[in-house]
Design brief:
single chain; alpha+beta; two-stranded antiparallel ribbon; 6 helices; 10 strands; 24% helix; signal; Peptidase C39-like domain-containing protein
Length: 264
Amino acid sequence: MKKFLSVIATMLTLTLMMSTVAFAANDTDDSVVYNGRSFKATELSQETLDWLEWYNGLSDDLKEMVSHEPLELASPTPCTTTTTVDATALDIDIPMPLETSLLPTSGYEPVYNPDYWNKDENIRRANCYAYAMDVLKTTEGKLQPGDPSGKRYTSLTKSAIEKAVKADGPYLGSGREITNSSKNATPGKNQYKVALVIAPNSDYHWYVQNRDGYWSHKQGYLKVSNVDASGKKITDPQSCDRNYGSGLNYSTFCGYYLVKYTNR
């Protein structure tokens, strides 16, 4: 009888061990979901998993604001192509800014025209990057730095994004040239100024100076705006309120850049 009970106990122990191993294997192979697509957690870096945990914890409204997408989560058929189009090449006379606190302008800046960008057929064809480059995608989606050139950024850092954006230049609309700039530099002919900021480990964001001297931006799929997180008009993206909460605090100011239309 004792021998029989010992055999039963051994079998139960082995069964429990096998179940534990199977559970661990299944746990290791757990899938994670991003925008309706499923990924194996074991095939993603810890950096991407951490970002995905943060992103999936956001409300739907906040998810709409985010432009960054880790390369590992990119669609196998990217929603971005080289067939972007000029969006606001408007020839409108805009009075030069009178406010002395505004940064220098050239008169070639994109016009602040929220009605155009916020149209139903346009609003999901541009995020902050497309808006800053003054282009619209031909399809819905958030334009990622490096996708038009096939040299997408691989990390959420200034150097990686800057390199990708400069490579994109010839593929954006009718052609762009992106160079580093200083705050008080005056743009030249066919040039205007943009600025890059980063919410560490979460998102990047771009601002663009308009022809009236103020700055505007487009957060992901949200509407174009010329006010900061406190609702104040933006005179300088470096000093404006960039903290939107829930990890969307764009505390890292990366610098100013000049965008030049190369084929106008």
